[in-house]
């Protein structure tokens, strides 16, 4: 009776003549292909893309500073790209302020308007003492001025939804094409009282409301800009308070 023979194998993955013989006779499996070439290829491609896109996100002033370092034709192509982006932003920036909402006009000013652009509704605290609500109200003004192609709206939560808990404010409803694409309840997922414009911008990018390479993402306003008076349209307010309007939806 034949007895099985134990063949000594130190390291089945080692590149040795003995292992080659064993693989040839099926004693040990073929050595799997090395991932090194694929990794090196991926790294090479990543470096190539990084080099080609090295000017992405730079504004016109930053491009001008690179005139002595970059090929003129290459720089000029990016200048033209930036000019086109700025032209598009200028032509589509038709809002540039926070619009107060009333219940009777909600369907027109939000649902219908979202067929043409993103509409972002901020539901604020009814008490006026909610610090998160106060913070996001300030950021809302800044964002509205910065992203004029998006419609930023604001309304007291209890005037929008009867009995809406004040603890759930601020609440943000993001509309597009008549539907709510995302809602944010309080600032917990944005950083609480540490929420900044950049945190809201990240949400806008995730939504597709702002493109990843938008030149405005690189611009940072001075700390006082975009705050204070002039943020919300006063012509549609009476005595500094939003009109309640009809208590029923359209």
UniProtKB/TrEMBL annotation:
The lineage of its organism: Eukaryota, Fungi, Dikarya, Ascomycota, Pezizomycotina. It comes from Vermiconidia calcicola. It comes from the Eukaryota. This is Proteolipid protein 2.
